[in-house]
Write a structure and sequence with these properties.
495 residues, Ribosomal Protein S5, domain 2, Rossmann fold, five-stranded parallel β-sheet, four-stranded mixed β-sheet, elongated
Length: 495
């Protein structure tokens, strides 16, 4: 047989479109040509495949080999096509049987020795193959990731093992997870945070309602420490959520974190594409890598304003759409934004040691736009600690104690409306808030005096709804509205 067709998968965003690797052997001068919009890494696969076949004791055909990656208008990149190309050459040259190819899909990069190396985006390929009624064959390094799909998946360590299974001389090893994959690594402990009752309370509210949070205060008061503890009190990922997180991370890593809520902490020199994603072949940015987790932006005013402004739409819609000339990729990005900033350039506004002029402070705070601050539900001051609070063992509540309250509040919201309070629409807010006429008047007067927008009104209601859930009550009380209003301190300063 001089023609073979092997199925594999490309990578476009979180999708994995089908690619047919068509291998044809013909008479003529020996050579190998790859067509079908291959990028550099794909064109270089001919050298990797040749060495892998020879070192695996197969014959590399001394004929003219043409490899077509169909459809031809779909860009192909990476080393993921090495294994299907090698299998196609072996089948076309009669060294392997073709009967098993219709039910299998192959993904993997080949080393020169014939060993299989893990590739990014494997999980999406496994899931797409299962929907198409085929079984994937992936490198053993992608086994724990592929096992998350909970579908039959074969793994192999090298080309020889794949060929032995295709010839029915050996059974296919199945992908399976390990204990380390199903039990997340220990999270940082909230009890490490001394004092700061207001900030700890805000952290609990943010976790219970999935709210965005801004800490501001002098340097060294624990803003970064507080932010890093948020994931320790969030509810554990469900299976579907863990699958979504692993699916996104597998696009940029061949060994994605499994079973953990991500915590992303980009430097303030990060560009807009680094945050939202980009590239000629679109890849997820920090906001998508923080999906179902936390995105922490320290020193918020140090980020270029143009970079911060790209966060506005993703914060509202929970997804980012990256358009390129040849394709458009959509990445989910349901993340919690936690930000930190100093009150002035030196960080000590209001203290004798501050030497910043009012103009410098105004320019510093002016780097943050009103629409962005409007989308952050809670603005919380973090004060300097009394050194006496650092003595002796910590008496603060542990992460497990706070996480139990957070979980109960989340379960209450889930039973009532099927989602976290952060995602309630204005209509759903009216339905679940149950404000009295007096409370409407209270909230209206407060938002008018603070100069708040309608968006801020809704965010205050969402926070108040979360406070009521933490108190295990369906009715919003005046104290819930007052506390929610108290978390708009930057708005009050602006007013």
């Amino acid at each position: 047989m001089s023609l073979a067709i092997v199925h594999t998968r490309a990578r476009v965003g979180i999708d994995a479109p089908l690619v047919s690797v068509e291998v044809h052997l013909s008479n003529g001068l020996p050579g190998l040509a790859i067509v079908g919009m291959p990028e550099t890494a794909v064109r270089e696969s001919k050298d990797r495949v040749r060495s892998a076949l020879i070192n695996s004791h197969f014959e590399f055909p001394a004929r003219r080999i043409t490899i077509n990656l169909a459809p031809a208008d779909l860009p192909k990149e990476g080393g993921r096509f090495d294994l299907p190309i090698a299998i196609g050459i072996l089948v076309a040259s009669g060294q392997l049987p073709a009967k098993a190819l219709d039910t299998l899909e192959f993904v993997g990069e080949l080393a020169l020795s014939g060993d299989l190396r893990a590739v990014p985006g494997c999980l999406a390929a496994v899931m797409a193959a299962h929907k198409a009624g085929r079984t994937s064959v992936v490198p053993a390094g992608n086994g724990p990731e592929a096992a998350l799909a909970d579908t039959p998946t074969y793994v192999a360590c090298n080309l020889l093992q794949v060929c032995a299974c295709l010839q029915a001389r050996s059974d296919w090893p199945r992908a399976c997870g390990t204990a380390a994959d199903t039990h997340p690594a220990p999270q940082a402990e909230l009890a490490d945070v001394r004092g700061q009752p207001l900030a700890r309370r805000a952290l609990e509210i943010a976790a219970a309602g999935n709210h965005n949070l801004l800490f501001y205060g002098p340097p060294g008061t624990g803003k970064t420490l507080l932010a890093s503890r948020l994931t320790s009190i969030l509810p554990p990922l469900t299976r579907d959520e863990a699958l979504e997180v692993a699916l996104i991370h597998s696009l940029v890593s061949s060994q994605p974190p499994l079973g953990q809520r991500p915590f992303r902490h980009p430097h303030h020199s990060a560009s807009a594409p680094a945050l939202v994603g980009g590239g000629s072949v679109p890849r997820p940015g920090e906001i998508s890598l923080a999906h179902k987790g936390v995105l922490f932006l320290d020193e918020l005013p140090e980020f270029p304003r143009s970079v911060l402004e790209v966060l506005r739409e993703p914060l509202e819609h929970g997804e980012v759409r990256i358009a390129r000339a040849q394709t458009t990729a959509v990445f989910p990005c349901e993340f919690q934004l936690v930000a930190a900033l100093n009150p002035c350039p030196c960080g000590y506004a209001g203290e004798n040691r501050c030497r910043c002029t009012p103009d410098q402070i105004s320019r510093y705070r002016g780097r943050l736009s009103g629409p962005l601050l409007d989308r952050i539900d809670m603005h919380v001051p973090v004060r300097a600690l009394d050194p006496a609070q650092l003595r002796g063992p910590s008496q603060e509540e542990s992460s497990s104690v706070v996480a139990a309250r957070v979980l109960q509040a989340r379960q209450r919201a889930q039973a009532r409306q099927g989602k976290a309070n952060q995602y309630l629409s204005p209509g759903e807010l009216e339905q679940h808030a149950h404000l009295t006429d007096a409370q409407h008047s209270l909230l209206g007067e407060a938002t008018e005096s603070l100069g708040l927008s309608v968006r801020a009104w809704h965010r205050i209601l969402r926070v108040a709804r979360t406070l009521a859930d933490l108190d295990a009550t369906d009715q919003l009380e005046d104290k819930h509205l007052c506390e929610a209003l108290g978390y708009r301190t930057l708005d009050r300063r602006a007013g």
